[in-house]
Amino acid sequence: MTENELAKIVFDLGIKVHKFSGPGLLESAYEECLFYEIKKYGLFVEKQRALPLIYEEIKLETGYRIDLLVEKKLIIEIKSVEVLNELHFAQTLTYLKLSGCRLGLLMNFNSVLFKNGVRRVVNNL
Fold first, then answer.
1. Which residues pair with 120 in a beta bridge?
2. What is the domain partition of the chain in residue ranges?
3. Rg (Cα) of the chain, in Å, rounded?
4. How many CA atoms lie within 13 A of 92 on its CB side?
5. 74-90 tens-digit pLDDT
6. Average pLDDT value for the chain
7. What pLDDT does residue 61 have?
8. Rounded to two decimals, what is the model's pTM?
9. Which H, E and C letters describe the chain, residue by residue?
10. Which residue in 20, 77, 87, 120 is deepest, having the highest Cβ count within 10 Å?
11. How far apart are CA 101 and CA 72, in angstroms?
């Protein structure tokens, strides 16, 4: 399955979670619900996956964590903020670069209309 196909599935599952819960919950609540939905759908998903920083020949365990990693190729960064900003986008792009993944979804569940809170982030490798 391609990254785009996975992104479509996860986006639709995000809509399902958002319709049930609405805006205003903590990020961790949305993460748990989306994790459950992705697993239930039958996709391989990892939650809070450690992401080391490799600088030259050193591997630094710096505490970076990917919220959700789907099928080892799609990063999901979950937010529950008033407005997404460029720092959120930059964080997701950095996670893509460090992991070698090509596509990420930055999902802000604190939006009245879910689709307005989702940004695709592409790592052009």
1. 105
2. 3-69+92-122
3. 14
4. 28
5. 999 999 999 999 999 99
6. 95
7. 80
8. 0.93
9. CCHHHHHHHHHHHHHHHHHHHCCCCCHHHHHHHHHHHHHHHCCCEEEEEECCEEECCEEECCCCEEEEEECCCEEEEEECCCCCCHHHHHHHHHHHHHHCCCEEEEEECCCCCHHHHEEEEECCC
10. 77
11. 8
